[in-house]
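Retry 2 of 3 after timeout on previous attempt. Resubmitting structure tokens to design endpoint.
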């Protein structure tokens, strides 16, 4: 790719996809070691060849290297492997901030890997971590030593964090970078319990303490609406997850099954057209916790960004098949379906009718650049 020219000497915003797979990542070990009598998984098996490299997908994660040294969104179970591959390649070293979308293992279990940055001040003295109150409680419950070193054992070799509590639709700035981020709530499936755990959604009848972060601020635990101590029938509680509006330039929604009305109001009031949308799409059909192709394309058509990069894929569909489906959403897919795979045909049939939109699958290592005039280019599709 040629050099990037940005008007007014303003550096472009850069988005680096560190991981683009679902929680189990791709390839699946059971697919690579399947017995001969089982139908082969072409997506997973393709990863054993150079041609299938874009089907190697780690847990969904992205970074923005334009902010000093870098911002990291989510540190999943295989963050260490992603960092080893992409940080040296793109000259990344210091991490300005880690922003966690939710408290699932594929979004936060890589926190411990960050000791490589802070242990003994190897790269930096600490890392700022931005989380919701509920995610903070889940980290505190699951990994108490990451919050307070008094719970460390052995040599006490744990990472150093400064915790910041962020709230729905309350913008915040990453340190003093001038970079503004607005978190917003989306649904990421549901809780399979009649009552939500206290750390996730305390009831108004329960007194909850505030949790200060190391910068001295405190944020109270806020209850979900509609939860209280009563004899009302149990309700289905959605699992809440953050998406992010970054610099009025990027909408990032990595894990979503439903966008609530109040979040739609925020997103539709943002700049038009938004240069980049990063959107969850697990597979063709919708899932309890994720969008499928039909829902993802409907979301894209409603928001109408300049470019959309899908993420969070399972092994059901390959990278190249997603390209075909994305082109069909833009009205420039192949007219002859004879040579399409079954998944390509099914996908294009789902989204054939409707406003043309630009959609492509992201892949691990993809870099996207947004200039100050909101033009978007990347290193794969241009």
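Retry 2 succeeded. Sequence:
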């Amino acid at each position: 790719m040629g050099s990037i020219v940005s008007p007014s000497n303003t550096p472009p915003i850069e988005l680096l996809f560190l991981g683009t797979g679902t929680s189990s990542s791709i390839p699946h070990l059971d697919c690579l070691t399947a017995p001969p009598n089982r139908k082969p998984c072409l997506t997973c098996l393709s990863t054993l060849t150079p041609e299938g490299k874009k089907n190697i997908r780690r847990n969904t994660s992205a970074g923005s290297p334009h902010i000093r040294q870098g911002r990291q969104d989510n540190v999943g179970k295989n963050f260490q492997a992603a960092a080893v591959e992409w940080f040296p390649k793109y000259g990344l070293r210091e991490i300005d901030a880690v922003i966690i979308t939710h408290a699932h293992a594929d979004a936060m279990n890589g926190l411990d890997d960050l000791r490589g940055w802070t242990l003994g001040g190897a790269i930096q003295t600490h890392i700022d971590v931005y989380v919701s109150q509920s995610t903070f409680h889940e980290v505190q419950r699951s990994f108490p030593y990451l919050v307070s070193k008094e719970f460390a054992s052995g040599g006490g070799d744990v990472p150093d964090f400064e915790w910041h509590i962020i709230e729905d639709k309350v913008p915040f700035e990453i340190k003093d970078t001038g970079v503004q981020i607005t978190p917003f709530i989306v649904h990421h499936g549901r809780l399979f319990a009649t009552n939500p755990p206290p750390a996730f959604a305390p009831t108004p009848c329960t007194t909850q303490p505030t949790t200060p972060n190391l910068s001295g601020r405190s944020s109270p635990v806020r209850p979900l609406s509609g939860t209280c101590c009563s004899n009302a029938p149990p309700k289905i509680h959605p699992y809440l997850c953050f998406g992010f509006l970054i610099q009025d330039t990027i909408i990032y929604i990595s894990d979503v099954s439903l966008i609530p009305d109040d979040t739609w109001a925020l997103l539709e009031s943002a700049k038009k057209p938004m240069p980049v949308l990063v959107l969850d799409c697990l597979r063709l059909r919708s899932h309890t916790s994720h969008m499928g192709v039909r829902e993802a394309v409907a979301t894209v058509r409603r928001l109408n960004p300049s470019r959309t990069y899908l993420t969070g894929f399972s092994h059901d569909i390959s990278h190249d098949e997603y390209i075909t489906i994305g082109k069909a959403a833009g009205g420039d897919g192949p007219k002859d379906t004879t040579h399409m795979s079954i998944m390509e045909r099914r996908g294009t049939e789902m989204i054939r009718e409707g406003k043309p939109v630009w959609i492509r699958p992201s892949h691990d290592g993809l870099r996207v650049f947004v200039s100050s005039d909101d033009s978007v280019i990347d290193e794969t599709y241009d």
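Attempt log closed. The chain has a mean pLDDT of 86.
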